[in-house]
Design goal:
Layout lengths: L9 E4 L3 H12 L4 E4 L3 H8 L10 H10 L3 E4 L2 H4 L5 E4 L14 H11 L7 E4 L7 H11 L5 E4 L9 H6 L3 E5 L3 H16 L1 H7 L10 E5 L1 H32 L3 H9 L20 H14 L5 H24 L8 E5 L14 H11 L3 E5 L4 H5 L6 E3 L3 H6 L3 E4 L4 H4 L3 H7 L4 E4 L6 H6 L3 E3 L4
Bound molecules: uridine-5'-diphosphate-glucuronic acid.
Length: about 450
């Protein structure tokens, strides 16, 4: 890989989880970075040196770069793109009602950038797009007679550990027809790697070493790598959830099973945690996007359809187990749902299983009080009127007959049974994330309901 002799000025289109993290980290590695955010409320927050979502370590990294001028937040393409030789597209790709990816923002960002990019600019796609999208954007640039090099550079960061994942990556993938541009993009990350310890210390995030690989591929391979990685992880989760249902039926414990199965290094323990299923802005959308991509190319990805079906079944499966254990059923039961973020470490509630559990319970006539240490505000949008939000876990527990742990926040899963006894008279606890020590709850007199335990 070639070393960069002069540092490119970079524009990042879209300052969401991926864009803002990327922009702030590159700005701390010495690049001049423009982050374009069209939403005026969000832009104001970023300009003040903060993030508009919760992400460990990110605020101080943004603030440092905003204060020293290396990161400029703007809504103006004109102010940034003509001065940049590299443009990262990190705009949102929500899904359409039929499950396919909605690429409206991807195309409109490319079209707008096309009017301003100078020849030789490298246009880098970080948004997750169906395979084939890059070729269409290249055609769009060619139609405008633009001598721009297109590179697919998929993102693998996880929300909650976004800073660590970007600095201590396991791989950086870049794919495109122009080998020199692919190499140039990899070199941008190489410089970030050289600065990673000081940036991680600034954000006080984990600095455990990972030996990352730099992988250059073809354009279509790079696009397919991203969705395939997410689909495989989703598959692992749904596989575990299927076996969890069998474990319930035969009185085995899925945690014991997967601890031993995952000890086989060919399989690996990560992403074998059974529970309420996967949520968030990525897996559900990427699985349906991959299925749609398959169909439009004449390929039936039945295995992913099965993974999707299993995932959708999990909240209902858990509530059915609960119903069977309540003498009076779910109607009228007072339930505390602890955890509304789609996983711990984030304020993101998109496709959150905790929200699905709370809403379904409310629909079934339960009295639901929910609480999340960080995601209450964001959850408001998606919760049904019948779900009350509490200001603290204690308040949610106060009136409950049943406790559901829906997100693995340490403040819920690291408690001893005594904590729940103190704040609630509930003696039924649903561990929808399979993270409690079931024996200690059973010994303390709780009726413990896990998933496959
Ligand atoms: C996921 C991928 O892990 C990232 O590599 C990828 O970059 C990102 O999507 C993306 O496409 O942008 P993320 O959605 O942040 O990251 O969260 P994960 O940690 O992967 O968790 C996804 C969901 O699976 C969560 O709801 C989590 O609770 C659930 N999960 C995870 C399980 O139910 N069981 C497990 O064993 C692991």
């Amino acid at each position: 890989m070639t070393e960069l002799t002069t540092l490119p000025t970079i524009t990042v289109l879209g300052a969401g989880y991926v864009g803002l993290t990327t922009a702030a980290l590159l700005a701390n590695a010495g690049y001049k970075v423009f982050a374009i955010e069209p939403n005026s409320e969000r832009l104001k927050v970023i300009k003040s040196g903060q993030s508009f979502f919760y992400e460990d370590g990110l605020d101080v990294i943004i603030k440092t770069a905003i204060d020293n001028g290396s990161l400029v937040a703007t809504n103006s393409y004109e102010q940034s793109i003509p001065h940049s030789s590299v443009v990262f597209s990190c705009v949102g790709t929500p899904d359409n009602p039929d499950g396919s990816s909605n690429l409206a923002y991807v195309y409109s960002a490319a079209e707008e950038a096309a009017t301003l990019m100078k020849p030789g600019t490298r246009y880098v796609q970080k948004s997750t797009v169906p395979v084939g999208t890059g070729r269409e954007i290249e055609a769009l640039f060619q139609k405008s007679n633009l001598a721009v090099h297109y590179v697919s550079n998929p993102e693998f960061l996880r929300e909650g550990t976004a800073v660590y994942d970007t600095l201590f990556f396991d791989r950086v993938v870049a794919g495109g027809d122009n080998a020199e541009s692919v190499d140039h993009i990899l070199a941008i990350y190489k410089r970030l790697e050289q600065h990673r310890h000081s940036i991680a210390q600034l954000g006080t995030v984990d600095t455990s070493e990972r030996k990352g690989q730099y992988i250059a591929t073809s354009l279509n391979s790079a696009e397919l790598i991203k969705v395939t990685a997410n689909a495989f992880l989703a598959l692992k989760i749904s596989f575990s959830n299927s076996i969890a249902k069998l474990a319930d039926a035969v009185d085995a414990d899925i945690v014991e099973v997967m601890d031993a199965v995952g000890a086989d290094e060919r399989i690996g323990r990560p992403f074998l945690n059974a529970g309420r299923g996967y949520g968030g802005g990525c897996f559900p959308k990427d699985v349906s996007g991959l299925i749609a991509s398959g169909l439009s190319n004449g390929v039936d990805l039945e295995i992913m359809q099965a993974a999707q079906l299993v995932n959708k079944s999990m909240p209902g499966y858990i509530l059915e187990k609960l119903r069977e254990n309540l003498p009076k059923g779910l109607k009228g039961a007072r339930v505390a749902v602890l955890g509304l973020a789609f996983k711990a470490g984030t304020s993101d509630t998109r496709r959150s299983p905790g929200v699905a559990l709370a809403n379904t319970l409310a629909r079934l006539g339960a009295t639901v009080t929910a609480f999340d240490p960080i995601a209450n505000e964001e959850a408001c949008r998606d919760l049904l009127k019948g779900v009350s939000l509490a200001d603290s876990a204690q308040q949610a527990l106060n009136t409950a007959d049943v406790i559901i742990i829906a997100t693995e926040w340490p403040e819920f899963i690291d408690q001893k049974p005594r904590y729940y006894e103190e704040f609630s008279r509930a003696r039924v606890i649903v561990d929808a994330v399979n993270r409690l020590n079931k024996h200690s709850y059973i010994s303390a007199g709780f009726q413990y309901i896990g998933v496959g335990r």
